[in-house]
Description:
Chain A is mainly β. Chain A is built from no helices and twelve strands.
Amino acid sequence: AQTVTQSQPEMSVQEAETVTLSCTYDTSESDYYLFWYKQPPSRQMILVIRQEAYKQQNATENRFSVNFQKAAKSFSLKISDSQLGDAAMYFCAYRGNAGNMLTFGGGTRLMVKP
Amino acid sequence: EPEVTQTPSHQVTQMGQEVILRCVPISNHLYFYWYRQILGQKVEFLVSFYNNEISEKSEIFDDQFSVERPDGSNFTLKIRSTKLEDSAMYFCASSELADYNEQFFGPGTRLTVL
């Protein structure tokens, strides 16, 4: 079974600074998808960024980018120019090639200091 | 922007009672999901539903659970005889297609079993 691990339960960053959230996963599959979801306080989870394992190029969405290391099974999220609105719980998730279920990590609570 | 909605936001029930959690997925989506998060634990997949039948389910989704799309808009999760350990946040999600299509999540229903 696949597992996803987020080793940082909490992180904090100064506004306008850069922060990196870690995620590692365990799988025997060669083709899969990885996601970062953001859950603001009392709001629903929204997708921040996704990566297909077959793509070598790291995904980027505005201030959000990933560092995907397939051999190391690592998928970190970098948030540049952090804003107060980035404060949220961030979940790393894995989806295998067969089926649609998402396997989540335990989450990292990001605090942004003004 | 279309959103997944869930009702109620909080449900309190006595052990052994039946509960129905309701979700309205995004209207043009074809795949529907239920996840749950026990307090302090990871978000866990329960079931996915497509074309009026279960397409995938986890070990958690045993005989006490059932899902239904009773009409063109609602998607429900029924727990027949609730147990204390069913207390959790239950998230509904939907996606337009399968593959790596984004799953859009609802805000969740907090179920408390007394």
